[in-house]
Amino acid sequence: MSIMSEPQIRILTSSDWQLYKSIRLQSLLDSPDSFGSTYAREVLLTDVEWRARLETSARTIDSLPLIVELNEEPVALAWGLIHQNSENLAHIYQMWVRPESRGQGIAKALLSQIVQWAHNSGCAEVALAVTTINESAMHLYLKSGFEPSGVTEELRAGSELRVQPLLLKLPGDPRNQSADR
Ligand SMILES: CC(C)(COP(=O)(O)OP(=O)(O)OC[C@H]1O[C@@H](n2cnc3c(N)ncnc32)[C@H](O)[C@@H]1OP(=O)(O)O)[C@@H](O)C(=O)NCCC(=O)NCCS
């Protein structure tokens, strides 16, 4: 058996749906305050629904579902997504690194891959939302050039937690020329 010593990032395909289901549910259990969705909600999804999230047809607008593996174990997840009718804006969702793999640059590598993909896809901006009390994620994004954009919102209906929308302006877009200087 080959032993990988470095975490490997790859794109998830529909045949990875069980792997995706397992790491996504793990992330929702581990970090319930980091995501708008919940374990209770997603554990009810059918196998067809899990697979459909990764189907090419669901990805036509463009999505980049990334997983990180270390020694054949999934250790991190993140999605880049460009919604229909909003081709200039990429979103980042579902960012999660398992606790024992944190602090090694894995999230930074995922972020950088998604930002590069957004840039190559012609996007002018990348958006995400982070819970205001989530210091590690807030540091990660602010250090990477994201800036607060707009007012905070409820994490989910009825939650006392708030999320701050953040925006990264990508270079090369004429609308961002003053930011480039
Ligand atoms: C936030 C999270 C994704 C960071 O993952 P990570 O792989 O540990 O992050 P990295 O090692 O790539 O760190 C990148 C930067 O993030 C910041 N950072 C990460 N962990 C931090 C911590 N505990 N405290 C302060 N800053 C931290 C640092 O600025 C770091 O940059 P540096 O190495 O130049 O100092 C991870 O802690 C996590 O999965 N948390 C739970 C889920 C979550 O909150 N997801 C984000 C949803 S928006």
Question: Can you give a write-up of this model?
Answer:
The chain is α+β, with helices and mostly antiparallel strands and 181 residues long. It has one domain (8-176): Gcn5-related N-acetyltransferase (GNAT) (Aminopeptidase, 3-Layer(aba) Sandwich). The chain has helices spanning 17-30, 39-42, 47-54, 106-120, 135-143, 177-180, and strands spanning 8-11, 63-70, 73-82, 89-97, 125-131, 147-148, 153-154, 162-169. Strands 1, 2, 3, 4, 5, 6, 7 and 8 form an 8-stranded mixed β-sheet that branches. Helix 4 (106-120) links the parallel strand 4 (89-97) and strand 5 (125-131). Helix 1 (17-30) packs across helix 3 (47-54). The longest helix has 15 residues, at 106-120. It is globular. The chain starts with 7 loop residues before the first strand and ends with a helix. The chain binds coenzyme A. The site of coenzyme A has 21 residues, from strand 4, helix 4, strand 5 and helix 5.
